[in-house]
Amino acid sequence: MTTHRVRAVRASQHLQQGLTLIELMIGLLIGMLVSLAAVTSLGFTRLASSTVGDSARLHEDASTAFRIIGHHLRQAGAQRLMDADGRRVHFNDAYVGYGNAAVPHSIEGANAISGTDTLRVSHDIEPLITATDCLGNAPTQQQQDNGFTTLSNVFSVNGGNLQCAGSATSLPAALIQGVEDFQVRYAVRDSATDTLQYQDAPVNWSEAEGVMVCLQLVGERGGQPTEPVLGCNGQPIAQDGRLRRTFWRVFQLRNADA
Prior knowledge:
The protein is built from three helices and eleven strands; from the N terminus they run ααββββαβββββββ. It is α+β, with helices and mostly antiparallel strands. The strands form three sheets. It has a five-stranded antiparallel sheet, covered by helices on one side. The protein has a four-stranded antiparallel sheet with strand order 9-8-10-11, covered by helices on one side. Strands 1-2 form a two-stranded antiparallel sheet. A hairpin with a 5-residue loop joins β1 and β2. The model has no long low-confidence stretch (mean pLDDT about 80).
């Protein structure tokens, strides 16, 4: 019986032996490698998520700006119908936009030599229809009673924000932020070749048939993986770790005489 008990104790001690130093070191090494891989993967995941989020915001901001600008450019030069004698109608002759009765035109712009441009857009409004400016504000009843027939919007950049000043209020408000450049070019038809030529500022604004708008936007976060980007004037943009995108959109002036 004693012999069997000694053998059982020895067997129990053998089964309860711990890890050797080498096995412990290997286990720690494997754990460190797994932890390092997890931390590295988390860093790449956070960076990729940040880049995707910044890129999505830039695209959404550009889409918002183009939607607002495009809405008013498509309406540019629109004139309401007036009742002539009860049987005939004619377009509102009082609307001249930024011109005069001899040469009316619905758009204008200021071309900056080394900065951002300014775009002005106008169209006639129908008092019976609720028309709003670029900020979503409608002219007041008093303005309509006083012959307020022209709805105008001025798009410009101030402090990195694309802002707009509408007709309903003289105070501009920001539409999107992170704007590094805002360039506008105007399509004018060449009579010799019957092709559209884009100019920074037409000699005759009434001859403009289209508008090309460029927005250069920059992201909020630094440390992003960047790639070479060309600006609105085709110039390479210096990389500082922030995401940058350049967006173009061309709008036809539907109410212009082509």
